[in-house]
Amino acid sequence: MKTLAIIFLTLISFSGFAQKGKLSGKITSEGSTVAFANVYIKASDLGTTADKDGKFLLKNIPAGNHRIEISAIGFKKFSRDILINSGQSKTLNIELEKSSEELNEVLIVDTQTGLTRRTPYNVSSIDMQGIETKGNPNGMMGSLREVPGVYGAEFGQGIVKPFIRGLGFSRVVTIYQGNKLENHQWGADHGLGINDLGIKKVEVIKGPASVLYGSGALGGVLLTQDDEFYKESTKFSGNIGTTFNSVSTGIRTYASLGKSFENGIFIATDLAYENHADYKNGNGRLIGNSRFNTKTLRLHTGIEKENFQNKLSFSFNDQNLGIILDEEMEDSKSLATSRNDRDMQLPFQEVKDYLLSYNQTTQHENFETSLHLSHHSNNRKEVEQDFDLVDLGLQQNHSFYNARITFPNGKIKHSLGTQGSFVKTQNIKNSQEFLIPDAEIFENGIYYLASLDIDSWFFQGALRYDYRNVTADASSEELIADDFILPGNPENRKLTRTFNGFTGSIGATKKFNAKNQLKFNFSTGFRAPDLAELFSNGPHPGTSRFEKGNDQFGREQSLQADLSYTYRNNRFESTFSAFGSRVNNYIYFTATDETLPNENLEVWSYLQTDANLYGFEFELKHTWLDQQRLETKFSGAIVRAEDLKNDRNLSFIPPDNFNLEVGYFGLKDRSLYAFSKLRLVSDQNRAGLNEETTAGYTLLNLGVSKKFNLGNDQLETGITVYNALNKNYVDHMSILRAFNVSSPGRNFMLNLKYNF
């Protein structure tokens, strides 16, 4: 009896195994193999990834009818019904059809988080390689203004703060070389500290992205992507170029060089030197001490393999930035000297940045990984009274890490990540003034991101928890001697604050057909107050302000709804986006009625309120004529913002702005390009606290460029005229708007670039 039972169970086991089948095959396209395509059985957990030769094998498939689906970057999704019989081993060779549209959808926006263009987030991209914008005096931000919803707050030519949908300063995160920059968070009159050297393009995420990037991503994220041309060349290749700006008699010279070896190792370098005298406004007046100069060096090396990629990069940026005085427009107090005077004069900022970063990605059969490690050292000095004295100085060291693991197989794609920073800020010894205490910040966040692809729908959701610990320390001899007092005047002269909480997002992308797509997303964001907002208690050199913070601030918390619709056909593409955002505990900076009589300084304080922001953006693009030689683009953005507690307009909100662009590609090889851009900025009549209304203006930019083939090399030449009508204007977002300091006038920018 026992023997019969064993035989019976054995037969059942063999019967169960016999019901399972196998499916194998090879994936190709136009005679070439398609590597690492995703293969899965719909309505099941069965899935795999093809190998580098396009071969795949799926085991343990239940007998019956199934639908197999295959997807790969740059190809249309393949779907077919198949019948698997009991015990059958079936072979299915598959031909995929190439699709630029599919390539755009699955294109990676950010390697660290794994975001693709199909994400429900509102993402825009701008190419930084056009010679007509190379060497823009306002650096990277000079080009980013072309993105609807993006604006810049200027403090002269060399310092521009990014704004996205009305939120700026430390509410926008910049990812550079994989590092989350923290160096520009100190004060409104300090820039990003980077230029466009070696950057291929910038991806702009509009709206809260704190769930993926942590504190500061309340308004959005700027993601810079390096130009990695050297990975495609086994010989030394690169470029060298120079740019001349007439408005400041500024010259920028730059070069890039690199190569890849047969074993996959690559090396590369970028370097640039830039020097500007004071710029002229539209009335031909020199704006004193708007001069600046920068020196930049970047080094890269790494390995590029099929399943493993890494990159080690080092960047050095040295800036000397003149500080325009509040009284500049008073003739008797102007710091303007001779037209071509480039020597630094008092006051000025001296800023040095050192950034070392390591980025690594791997691809395995069932998972993918991403790792980033970096250390950033930022030394910032304000020199006002004497070239040998530092009036205000900070040394910041920032260690940052980001790690992610993704499981791409199956219907749901899972990603789990962690991200964190350790920031140490110290006042430079022997400084004359102290605005904030020494401090240490530790923060860490853990997030989960899931995406589900079902036919024409793509769903994405994320959840994150963050913890941030801030310790202010006023116990150094210098701070004691300066009588710097922390809130509450603790006996040990130290104060600790913590900020923690959850953020999340959920959204979907609906693709109705090849022409119509809809995105909608709900997301929360947060920002912990920075050191200046919490602990400021001192005079700010270069200004007439005594600044006070508030250590009782809670973290800013936002909730935003975003809707975006895109229509595209062969020649026309349009995008319309609308958003609404509520920001609780919104921090703003304002003058008080208090004055310190002994020092003749006006007291400025940080305060909190609740705010509503809403608006929309649009972009229309059309190509005309044969070979799509003529391009037209019309875009614009409108933002409204309300201070709810005080029933007034929020301060520092961009005016309505619109851009009209026409470009034409000439000659048979399209090597000639001519364009005109018209920027219309409306009156800003919705003045906030301590603001006055600002008149609108219209700027006309013109340009032409030509490429010459020299054997295997290429020479690019171009001339661009910014503010061609020589308009004299004051932008509402200028840091010096209250003192009527006008922006640059007409600028002839001459470019010469040799690619080899």
Automatic annotation (TrEMBL):
Residues in TonB-dependent receptor plug domain copies: 117-221
Mode of membrane association: Multi-pass membrane protein
Keyword Transport: yes
Record's keyword terms, sorted: Cell outer membrane, Membrane, Receptor, Signal, TonB box, Transmembrane, Transmembrane beta strand, Transport
GO MF annotation, one: siderophore uptake transmembrane transporter activity
Database matches in Pfam families: CarbopepD_reg_2, Plug, TonB_dep_Rec_b-barrel
Main location: membrane
Record domain TonB-dependent receptor-like beta-barrel: where: 260-723
GO biological process: one example: siderophore transmembrane transport
UniProt superkingdom: Bacteria
Subcellular location: Cell outer membrane
Family matches, as SUPFAM superfamilies: Carboxypeptidase regulatory domain-like, Porins
Any one of the GO CC terms: cell outer membrane
Transmembrane segments: none
The family this protein is said to belong to: Belongs to the TonB-dependent receptor family.
The name this protein goes by in its record: Outer membrane receptor protein
Organism, scientific name: Salegentibacter salarius
